[in-house]
Specification:
There is one protein chain. It is built from three helices and four strands, in the order αββαβαβ. The protein is an alpha+beta fold. The strands form two sheets. Strands 1-2 form a two-stranded antiparallel ribbon. A two-stranded parallel sheet has the order 3-4. A hairpin with a 2-residue loop joins strand 1 and strand 2. Helix 2 (40-56) crosses helix 3 (73-84). The mean pLDDT is 91.
């Protein structure tokens, strides 16, 4: 017996999910770190700006983009920007040692 899959009423991509989160919780905290906070609206705006920059530099759907950074708000913004334009985020750990 197959389970019924609910219809959320929108295409659940990173971009649309983030836009929906902004509609519901725009000014609420999305990421909280000891020294920094970022709201859903701030994350959406920053990832949209970076996504436009990536598109302008030739990154597009299916492009693999390496992320070599510590886990931070910048890492999350970059990951959101990469995936919202259809590129593939390839995270590399900053604590990796050869």
């Amino acid at each position: 017996m197959a389970l019924a899959v609910p219809d959320p009423g929108y295409t659940p991509t990173i971009g649309t999910c983030l836009t929906r989160a902004v509609e519901l919780w725009g000014d609420r905290d999305f990421i909280v770190l000891p020294d920094r906070r970022i709201t859903f609206a701030d994350a959406e705006a920053a990832s949209r700006r970076l996504g436009k920059e990536l598109l302008a530099s030739g990154v597009g759907k299916g492009t693999r983009v390496g992320l070599f950074d510590t886990y931070s708000t910048e890492w999350v913004i970059a990951s959101l920007a990469i995936t919202r334009i259809g590129a593939l985020a390839m995270p590399f750990s900053s604590i990796y040692r050869p």
